[in-house]
Write a structure and sequence with these properties.
This protein has about 90 residues and is mostly beta strands. The protein has one domain (about 15-93). It contains no helices and 3 strands. The protein has strands at about 25-30, 40-45, 75. It has a 3-stranded antiparallel β-sheet with strand order 2-1-3, with no helix packed on it. The chain is flat. The termini are far apart. The model has no long low-confidence stretch (mean pLDDT about 75).
Length: about 90
């Protein structure tokens, strides 16, 4: 039964996150991924040169902006598909 009490329609195909390009990103206002993330999005390249600056829009859990120079952390998840065979290098620093 569906939400209105009528018969349900069978589903033969279901997909999620279609047409999203890039890696899913989550940012935390802490340096160790603790607590809830306060910023979510998608990164096409997964790269950036943030140095000591804070990602734009990253707030503390109370909603106030995270001060410049504060510790923060990020997690990038997803799949990377390489169109050509070869040797690739990935780095974090």
């Amino acid at each position: 039964m569906n939400a209105s009490g009528g018969p349900s329609t069978p589903v033969s195909y279901m997909a999620f996150d279609q047409e999203l390009d890039g890696l899913a990103t989550r940012f935390w206002p802490t340096g160790d991924l603790s607590g809830p993330p306060t910023l979510h999005g998608y990164s096409v390249t997964g790269s950036g040169d943030w140095g000591t600056s804070v990602s734009v829009g990253l707030n503390k859990t109370d909603g106030t902006p995270l001060p410049a120079g504060s510790a923060w952390s990020a997690r990038f998840t997803g799949s990377i598909y390489l169109s050509n065979a070869g040797q690739y290098y990935f780095r974090l620093y």
